[in-house]
Amino acid sequence: NIRARQQAMAKLYALADLHLGHKLNASEWEKLHPYPPGSGLILAGDIGETSDHLRAAFTKAKARFTHVFWVPGNHELYTVPSAKAGTSDALRGEAKYLAFVDIARTYGVLTPEDPWMVWHPPAAETEGKGNGEGVIIALCFTLYDYSFRPAHLATKDEALAWALEEDIQATDEALLHADPFGSREAWCDALCEKWEGKFHKYTEQYPDTPFVVVNHWPLREDLVYIPLVPRFSLWCGTKRTKDWHRSERFGPGNPGATVVVTGHLHVRRSDLIDGCRFEEVSLGYPKQWDAARGQGKGVNELLREILPGRPMSSGQQTIWRKYG
């Protein structure tokens, strides 16, 4: 029947780091094609800095996909000096995040603050994990705590000084405020505590059901490959999340994650670790996907298929996805 055919065609895709403040990226986003009924799109952070960027992204995404999921990146949390007083763009820290959650909800876009969806892929594509009846789309928002640093750097201040030796300092230090937590690392700790509790809750509620974990920042330090600015790693995650994908991390019998979806690095790749696919799905700034444009590839070709997804053999550790 028609409904069965639609379900068989429905897939889950992801893209991060749209950076719609760049005109070329914004115009490319308008070319997004419609996808079959039941299809889903994960927007894994760094859509842009303003509420207008979010609205543009959500308007197009919801017109093209049945289900849309969003997690924030650091750019959504920026409070820029030009923000108009009294608007959501002028808010700081958690208040801005929650205001953007409210915007997402007006479009029917799911956020980390909403109940996690149980996604039922057409072929129960969980890569051998779980009961074959679906996966939980675990939307997270962790920030970072400066722990992605060499072992000899004992403190955050030492780490920041180490980065400055190479003239590296993230814009976050000026524009990403941690109100009311006092520091970004304190906010990160509170967020991780929150999501770990949610993982435990869903493990109990949906036993033997694997996760698709979505977070803007990488979960593992060993997946941070940014050779042009290696000391930028300080702003790329927290060591606390290294094992969030592993089986039984959040309860006996839980199969762990079948896929982890992240962005932030602007280095498109797929990795296989502990039987779990790690997908870095960023678009990036215009110059960073210039080579793909030269091959005639745009936003539709650069969407990453998450489920069913491209299988990786145990012999494949990394696939670079420069061209999609």
What would the average pLDDT be, to the nearest integer? 93
What order do the SSEs take from the amino end to the carboxyl end, as H and E? HEHEHEHEEHHHEEEEHHEE
Structural class: alpha/beta
Query: What would the principal axes of the Cα set say about the shape?
Result: globular
Helix content: 25-40%
Strand order of the largest sheet: 4-5-6-7-9-8-11
Rg is: 19 Å
Q: Describe the biggest sheet?
A: 7 strands, mixed
Compute the number of strand runs.
Answer: 11
Portion in beta strands: 5-15%
Number of helices: 9
Gap between N and C termini, in Å?
33 Å
Spans with pLDDT under 50 lasting ≥5 residues? 1-8
Short summary of the structure?
The chain is of the alpha/beta class. It contains nine helices and eleven strands.
Overview of this protein structure:
With 324 residues, the chain is an alpha/beta fold. The chain has helices at residues 2-9, 23-29, 51-64, 93-106, 156-164, 172-175, 184-205, 290-294, 299-302; strands spanning 12-15, 40-43, 67-70, 117-119, 135-139, 211-214, 257-262, 269-273, 276-280, 304-307, 318-320. The longest helix is centred in the middle third of the chain and has 22 residues, at 184-205. The radius of gyration is 19 Å and the shape is globular.
